[in-house]
Amino acid sequence: MVVKILLVEDQPRYHQRWQREIAELTERVEVLSALSISEAEEYFATHVRELAAIAIDACVPGDQPNTICLVKKFRKKFKGPIIAISGQSEFKQLLLQAGCSHESLKCFLSQKIAEVIFTTDALKEKLLVRQDEEWLKKK
């Protein structure tokens, strides 16, 4: 079974990274990449019934939070997990208050997505091994 997730982020390099990392974890996820708020709204309208999760950056585009209304709009029709992504704690808090159910730093989003939408022991094992490898690289 393939599930769909919607990633809302204005920087293509993050989409490329997350797609690669998610593909390494599982083949059971199809990523819908939205680079703008309008693109996110289009994907959402078309795929809302098929989505397993949404991950949304606080600032699309720019450096100030501008996706709060989008989170509220999504939350009205989508009851699944919505992950707030930002390097700024206060921005993640704004998105959580708007209706996000989870939060993540951008560097850990792939792991958070897998954690939120899958519960298989094999996938969790992959996550733990990968996190251990990343931790060892930082030392």
Written account of the structure:
By secondary structure, the protein is α/β, with parallel strands linked by helices. It has one domain (3-138): Rossmann fold (3-Layer(aba) Sandwich). It contains six helices and five strands. It has helices spanning 12-25, 37-47, 68-77, 89-98, 109-117, 121-138, and strands spanning 3-8, 29-34, 51-57, 82-85, 102-104. The protein has a five-stranded parallel sheet, sandwiched between helices. The N and C termini lie far apart (38 Å).
Chain-wise SSE layout:
Elements: E1 3-8, H1 12-25, E2 29-34, H2 37-47, E3 51-57, H3 68-77, E4 82-85, H4 89-98, E5 102-104, H5 109-117, H6 121-138
Parallel strand pairs: 1-2, 1-3, 3-4, 4-5
Descriptive key words:
5 strands, 139 residues, Rossmann fold
Strand neighbour order, sheet with most strands? 2-1-3-4-5
Helix content: 40-55%
Order of helices and strands: EHEHEHEHEHH
In total, the number of domains comes to 1
Rough outline: globular
Average pLDDT over all residues: 87
Count the helices. How many?
6
Percent of residues in beta strands = 15-25%
- What can be said about the biggest beta sheet? 5 strands, parallel
What is the radius of gyration? 14 Å
SS content category:
alpha/beta
Distance between the termini: 38 Å
Regions with little confidence, pLDDT below 50 for 5+ residues? 120-127
Q: What is this structure, in a nutshell?
A:
The chain is an alpha/beta fold and 139 residues long. It has helices at 12-25, 37-47, 68-77, 89-98, 109-117, 121-138, and strands at 3-8, 29-34, 51-57, 82-85, 102-104.
